[in-house]
Structures are given as structure tokens and as C-alpha cells.
Design brief:
alpha+beta; 14% strand; 2 domains; 6-stranded antiparallel sheet
Length: 328
Amino acid sequence: MQVGELIEAQDMNALLRVIDSLCERQSWDELLDLADMCEEAVERGKQLWPIAAHVDYRIALQAPADYAAGVLTSDATRFSLGPLTEVAASTHAWVDLAAHIEEPHIASFVAAERVLRGEDLTGDVRADPSVLELPMKLLDFEPVYALATYRSDSVEVSEPWEPKKLMSDIELTEPDLLEEPELEAILLDLVMPWTTESNGVARCAVVEGDHVEAVSALCFGKARIGEVEPQEALQRMAWAASSGGAHGRRRGAALGRALAWRAVSALCDTDWPPDTEQLARIMRQLEWYRWDEGAPEHGWSLRLAVRDPQDGWAAAIAATDLLEEGDG
């Protein structure tokens, strides 16, 4: 059966096999022709947008840089395993992609992804740092971020470090809640796809007191707390912010890093964009904790607390997303 017939029959499985074959043969122009045919069929009412999106994904992942750059647009697709800026950056160096990306906003996200993979792009005029307002290199106080490895039909994401310190049971107390809607909104934005596109729930609390009181505001029974290093807290926030959770769309490591920095900056009460030396110093002055409710975690989970021992306040977030609504 010819490709045109497969499109008219909306034979998704057969079209995926055609895509696999074209990628194996590195027939990138034919692959682009297939995408055009699918998009034309979509305009006629055929339900083939997942195939067209998969073609773009495979080109971003596997094709030479000039082809990969050509599919990077501002149009987000729900059917991709992740943002194509991250997909392309996972398999192509910045120097290869940069010359072929025309849109500055897209170039900035690709550059930010390459920074997370170890490139120092400080001063590169094609890598505008004002989009995400972050340094175009990794700084000494940052962790090794949890990055995604994309494959032809799947994505694997590294897990955050296993914390060095164990958790211990705590006695829950009556919290003295503070009204901090802006800070709470920034913390909840870390897991926005979990709660708006998937099965997730998230709550946070800011209290006058310590981390135990902050966690107590989010617990219904018992809890355990363990101290983490500032790097570990930043890594966990970035991991969560990069993720789409169980069913949401992955946002990518570059945006995850930016959202984690914004959350830390808000907790440290620094201007944005922050002075990096000031931010690192205040991060070390705060006390950071992970916590749970004494039971195994299911699905995706972010449970962090932070305490300011000098000013006497603390904050905590509890976010969970499950594969199925009945899990856990």
C-alpha cells in the first residue's frame, strides 16, 4: 500500500513503520514530505496530527542539525514526548544548531538546554540570556540537573540524587500560618502541569515558625523529615518543574532550571534576576528539608520544606501526581 493510501486509511501503525524506515535510511526530505501530506490531510479532517508531530520529533532527535533546526517552532504540541528544543539539544551541539535557528526565542531555549549539558555559552550573541534570565553556564553552587534522554519512541529522565541524610519521625504541631500568596504561587508553579494536565494535587504553606510547623500545615497524620543540601533542594525543584508528571506535557530542563531558580530567589527574597553570589550565599544560610508522611511514595512526588532560622519563618510544598487516580 502506498503512503497516500495509508494516509487516506488513517493507518497510524503502518505510517509509524514508514517513519521508522525513512529514519533508518536517513531519508529526511521524504520524511518532511510525509509530514506535509499528513498536515494537508489534517486540514481535510483526517485525524493524523499525532503522525505529523511524530515526524517533527524524529527529525529534531535524529536528523542533521539543519533539518532539526527547521522543525523548532513556538507551537507546542501535546503529542511530543517533550519540547522539541530539548529534544534537538539532547543530540546536537549548539555550534551545529545555532546557525540554522532563525527565531531568537527558540535559539535561547536551545542554548539553555545545551548549557545544562555542559556548554558555556557566555557572551554568545545568539544565546540571549534575557529570555530565561539565567547565566549561560552552570555555576559552582548548582547541582547536576536531572536530564532527559530521548529515544525514537520514549523518554528516560534521570532521578534526583538520593539524599545523604536519613529522615526521622517528627511530632506534628499547630502551625501559625502566614498569608504569602505570591510565594505560594511561585512554589505551586513548579508542578503546574501535574495539577492542570494530569491527576496531580499540590499544596504549600508558609508559617511563622520552623520547618516542622510548615510540614504540619500540610499533613493529616504522621510525618518524617530529613535535611538536604541546598544543591539537592534545587535539583529536586528543577526536576519537578521540568516534568509533566504522569500525563502532562514535559516542560524541559531549561524551563525547569529557570522555575527552580525563581522559586529559590523568592524564598531567599532576592531581586529578579538575582545576583548569583548573593543567591548562593542566602541559599546556604537557609535550612532545606525533604519530608514524607511515613509511607512509600507513588508516582511523582515533590515534598520539600525550607526554614529561615534568622527571620523565623518556614515554607513547605507537598505535590503528588499518580499514574492512575486510584493509586496510592
